[in-house]
Amino acid sequence: MNQAPSAADIVAGAVEQARMGQWYEFRTAPQFIVGDGVSARLGEILAGRGVGHAFFAADPAVVSLGLMDTALRSLRLSGVAATIFECLPGEPTIQMVEEASASFKAAGAGFIVGFGGGSALDTAKAMAALASGVRLEEIGALAGRHLPRPGLAAVPTTAGTGSEVTAFTVITDASGRHKIAARHPCIMPDLALVDPRLTHGLPPRMTAITGLDALTHAIEAYVSKEACTITQALAHRAVMLAFRNLPIAAGSGDDGQARYAMAIASCMAGMAFSTAGLGLCHAMAHQLGARYHLPHGAANALMLPHVMEFNLMVKPAEFGEIARAMGVSLSGLSEREAAEASVAACRRLIRDVGLETDLPGKRETEAGLLAMADEALTDICAATNPRAASREDVIRLYRAVLPESR
Ligand SMILES: [Fe+2]
């Protein structure tokens, strides 16, 4: 008769299962509401949660364009007080997050709402992390620890970052040249309220830039080393939706169906990458964006085709599936040709929506390239890239988008 396994055997088996990648943990925002006009429900939802005073981290343009008016009216009707902190334009800095945190404390509010593009949402999420008493730089090492924080909601006004459903935030450090990408379950919003109508007035270039960010999330999550069945299903569908709808949303901004589809694509890609992680494109784009002050999605658009080309030899079947999701006919193509077709389709989309494919006029020194490569390789996103990259690989990929540094 076989002996029953000991506790040590069970633990060893469990650890082996985890090592083999058979276990995974999937998280998303516990309350996710999507629909045209749904921001009108924010007051009722917050009141239902017992919130008496909400603190908004908001984009100034969103405030001045009146995009928050409906939501704020709903708070008044529901008896919820509101304090608004207008974030500085551009990517959030650690100084601004600290300033917002001080205003939050002074206001005495009990709940944080990020309302705007990725920067406002990232600010709100970083504020929540700081309120737990931990520095952003150290939060990644505390992944297994519960960090109590105030309630947190995210209302996106762009379709790109997926920040409303992720446990990531990206903040520029005090020097202004480096980005801190922090990941922790406590950064995941409690509520994601997605109102695609808020994106209708977004100009074509901003639509293209943010949409390319969503597409990059989906592609990197799909081929990530930590991809699982759930994240791949979300990422695959997000590629399909973004590919079909981004050109329409960028070229015909008031197309409600395309805007709705892009909002969903952005969320699905966010749900996928929050668990699966990203890859070398984001790791490299973070440095490029910080160095040349490029919008995040534009930096991704520069790197994406090159990093896809670099990665496809280790995930040819997956890149073929990406090509299929992009609507490419794979009939008669070999596995390698199908994978390469995804790169060609991606380049075509980037050109169609008017984004740059390189940075003419930017000359980078050898020391500058080395520094960027080293930063990229230690970026949190590089860890889940499917292909191991050397410093020389990364420098070669940077040179591909810096024609005067070749
Ligand atoms: Fe991104």
Sheet-strand content, in percent, reads: 5-15%
**Uncertain spans:** none
Mean pLDDT: 93
Order of helices and strands: HEHEHHEHEHHEEEEHHHHHHHHH
**Cα distance spanning the termini:** 69 Å
| Main pleated-sheet profile | 6 strands, parallel
The strands making up the biggest β-sheet line up spatially as 1-8-5-4-2-3
Instruction: Name the hetero compounds present.
Output: fe (ii) ion
- The CATH superfamily name of the largest domain is Dehydroquinate synthase-like - alpha domain
Shape annotation: globular
Q: Helix proportion of residues, in percent?
A: 40-55%
The tally of beta strands, per DSSP, is 8
- How many structural domains can be distinguished in the coordinates? 2
The CATH topology of the largest domain = Dehydroquinate synthase-like, alpha domain
CATH architectural name of the largest domain: Up-down Bundle
Number of helices: 16
